[in-house]
Amino acid sequence: MPLSQDFLWGGALAANQCEGGWNEGGRGLSNADVLPYGKDRLPVVKGDVPMLKPDSSHRYPAQTGVDFYHRYQEDIRLFGEMGFKTLRLSIAWSRIYPNGDDARPNEEGLRFYENVFAECHRYGIEPLVTITHYDIPMHLVTEYGGWRSRKLIELYKRFVSTLFHRYKNMVKYWLTFNEINIMTSACFMAAGLIFQEGEDRYPIVYDAVHHVLVASAWATKLCHEIIPDSRVGCMLNAGIFYPATCNPLDVLAAQGENRKHYMFSDVQVRGSYPAYVLKEFERRGYNPPFAEDDRQILQENTVDFVSFSYYSTRVVEANSDGKYDSNLLKSADNPYLEREPWGRFLDPVGLRITMNEIYDRYQKPLFIVENGLGAPDTPDETGYVEDDYRINYLRDHIREMKKAVELDGVPLMGYTCWGPIDLVSVATGEMRKRYGFIYVDWDDEGKGSMKRSRKKSFGWYKKVIESNGEDLD
């Protein structure tokens, strides 16, 4: 069968990578605002080096993003021109609750997203909202220690309740936490964790994991109660780990690596920690910080669908740490695949394999909410980019996606490519790593006009959507 007629084609953005306006409209400081560009970025992202406020010796790309805050009408009009059925975007927590623990929400921030959603609906675009996409008010980091504190569950419940009540007539598709499995490696960026010298990180990280999983279940519960026709999904950084060889030790190592990531969605889809995780905790002498009603909340509030990002697969070799590090996920070499400019393997077939594995595991509808090629583009004097390499990448992946649906029977709700307009790379802070169908005149040094222009891929993706994925040439 071909893709369903209500298949949700579109694109995906994140507030911390596109929005800017970091000190406007009553917004408070967030962790994204203090992720620097350059060599210090990765240590800050991981929580190894504390950076609690901006300083004069660094540039902070998220503070400007690509100025979606002021240009959202123009950008959404272009998405409408491409025929988007949905737009995945996120909400900056500190735009709604500037400090995270404020008594009342910031009306100007609430109104901004209301305007954004209204603009989407004007073009027939259904918003798909990620509640938390690598975004936490810095006050919650400095005052409570980020998600290491259970206090954040209650503050998160207040935040999401505000969103659901305000936007219940505008948004019916929600994701709780972006790439939830990345919080164990990008600890500050994803969970607001900063480590002191000599601290045992394991219990701190997994306390935070538990708090986030419980908060996600609460959000699911509240969303279903406040917006009865809503659908709530989890969101995983996906792309399976292959064993380097058929040596059973490599196969076992790959299984273990995959489980490190599936443990999050196992809880969100099945409602409890899997046995393999509990045994790992036992070996570590670690006990999750269960409160009285946590087990019930997790069990009774599982997600409606599983969404995920897919950029690449990885390879695991027993007794090896891996040779490459892509978005903080290590991999051994894969002699059968080429790599893109930032080192990730190009593996369209891996998308089909990953889709089948996730569906076999959960038997829930899937949603591909990120897939794209980051590449340096060279525009002509008008801003036009002949980006056949991006078209080829997307074509190959969409073909394999369709095979998973049409030949394997995987139920798929939609596909939102990352990012339909150039934006700041979360991994490197670069603009040079461009994903968009729309070129933005802005560079790694924070210079340019911010002018938008259509790339060749703009017209190609418009045709893909018009044909519901049938015309990929």
Could you give a quick summary of the protein structure above?
With 473 residues, this protein is of the alpha/beta class.
Could you please describe the fold and organization of this structure?
The model has no long low-confidence stretch (mean pLDDT 96). The chain has 15 helices and 14 strands. The two termini are 20 Å apart. It is of the alpha/beta class and 473 residues long. The active site is at 370 (nucleophile). This is 6-phospho-beta-glucosidase. GO terms for molecular function: beta-glucosidase activity. Keywords: Glycosidase, Hydrolase.
Features:
473 residues; 8-stranded parallel β-barrel; TIM Barrel; 6-phospho-beta-glucosidase; two-stranded parallel ribbon; glycosidase; GH_1_N_CS; beta-glucosidase activity; hydrolase; alpha/beta; 14 strands; globular
CATH superfamily: Glycosidases
Q: Judging from the principal axes of the Cα atoms, what is the shape?
A: globular
User: Which class do the helix and strand fractions yield?
Assistant: alpha/beta
Tell me about the biggest sheet?
8 strands, parallel, barrel
CATH classification class: Alpha Beta
Low-confidence stretches: none
Number of strands: 14
- With helices defined by DSSP (H or I, 4 residues minimum), what is the helix count? 15
In the CATH hierarchy, what is the architecture at level 2?
Alpha-Beta Barrel
Overall average pLDDT: 96
Terminal CA distance reads 20 Å
What's the number of domains?
Answer: 1
Helix content: 25-40%
Indicate the proportion of strand residues.
Answer: 5-15%
For this structure, the CATH topology is: TIM Barrel
Order of helices and strands: EHHHEHHEHHEHHEEHHHEEEEHEHEEEH
Strand order of the largest sheet: 1-2-3-4-5-7-11-12
- Radius of gyration, in angstroms, nearest whole number: 21 Å
